[in-house]
Design a protein that fits this description.
Elements lengths: L5 E5 L3 H13 L3 E5 L2 H10 L4 E5 L7 H9 L4 H4 L3 E5 L7 H6 L4 E4 L4 H12 L2
Parallel strand pairs: 1-2, 1-3, 3-4, 4-5
InterPro entries: CheY-like_superfamily, Sig_transdc_resp-reg_receiver
Keywords: Phosphoprotein, Two-component regulatory system
Pfam family, one: Response_reg
């Protein structure tokens, strides 16, 4: 049996964190949640993850800035982890904008949890 895939959820809304955890834990993913980009980078120094769900608008360090920092990490496994943006401001960005900053994909808010799950599975089944 393979071990559960680990997903890091970076989101400043406790409501969205809890809903996302419930949806993903049902699929047996191991979920860790943090509230900002600085905490993402701290977690990555000590742990490995299979996917990051990254809110774009967070305090201290936003998702775009954090993604760029991850892509610059020396550890190639961590630097290339799939990162999916979660954003309510998708109209301010194009998929190309997200790709240029190093994000692999995005899911817009309000979250469609079927789409979120399908997007997570797309990256974790590779």
């Amino acid at each position: 049996m393979t071990s559960a895939k680990k997903v890091l959820v970076a989101e400043d809304s406790s409501v969205i964190i809890n809903l996302t955890k419930n949806v993903l834990m049902f699929e047996k993913y191991k979920i860790t949640a943090v509230k900002n980009g600085k905490q993402v980078l701290e977690k990555l120094t000590n742990e490995d993850f299979d996917l990051i769900l990254m809110d774009i608008n967070m305090p201290e360090m936003d998702g775009i800035e954090c993604t760029k920092a991850i892509r610059r990490l020396e550890d190639p496994q961590k630097a290339n982890i799939p990162i999916v943006a979660i954003t309510g401001n998708y109209k301010n960005y194009t998929l190309d904008d997200f790709k240029k900053s190093g994000l692999n994909d995005y899911v817009q808010k309000p979250l469609d949890y079927d789409l979120l799950l399908a997007t997570v599975k797309k990256y974790l089944s590779q």
